[in-house]
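SEVERITY: medium
COMPONENT: batch folding queue
REPORTER: lab tech (J.R.)

DESCRIPTION
The queue accepted two submissions in a row. Attaching both inputs and their returned structure tokens so the on-call engineer can compare them side by side.

ATTACHMENT 1
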Amino acid sequence: MLLTGLTDDYSHDGRSILELINTSVLPNALGAHRPTALRLGQSLKQIDAPFGALDQAALKLSTLALASGHGGNDGLYDFIEGLIGSWNSRRDAIAGPIKEELEGAEFQGDPIDESQSAQVIARANALVFEAEFWSFIF
């Protein structure tokens, strides 16, 4: 959609793969902030993609929780499932603003807010770090 210049009235799931697109063909709002848009997209992938870092850590820990053998009566199971639930809530709170920022730049011509983007990227990075930390611990 981005490369055709067409727009639609629905929210997109995902992002344009800016790594493969020449800056000269990007809308001005996106091209002017390409490095930040790239970081936003990469952060989104790490927290929202099926095989991103967050899902990899959640899969590892969820498997451990299930293997603990006690279901809902096991403290380890409860801890891990609570941790993953927290990650999912935080992921949703972070992914939404990233998608809105990218979609606004890609299709509405809205310039990327560098300050807001830096904050949301830092939150995404912190979430991935936490997930990888717990994955390493267990």
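ATTACHMENT 2
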Amino acid sequence: MKIFIILALAFTTLSAAPFKPDMEIKVKGLVCSACGTGVKKNFKKYKFQVKDVKIDIHKQLVLVDFLESKSKRIYWIKNQEIIELVKKAGYEVSHIKRLHGLKPNRYNKP
């Protein structure tokens, strides 16, 4: 029985898709996991555009993975909408960075 559980856990870990964020959003005041709950909840409302959201409280970042079409078109959310989403959760955006699979050298002001 133990072997079956170990194999099942290994399979689910290996089959999980890796998280590759398309956007990095620096949010002022995002210092605990409870703080990120409201921000994450607001992004999840965009279920036809947002695939997954991760919060990095140590760097005060919101990492967003957007859905893609079959032709590799990413369904972005406009910067102004992102600023409003974060503001509704009670925080302020300081920088937004679109990754495009690469890491740019600087942040883009929203």
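NOTES FROM REPORTER
Strands lie at 23-28, 50-56, 61-66, 92-98.
No errors were logged for either attachment.
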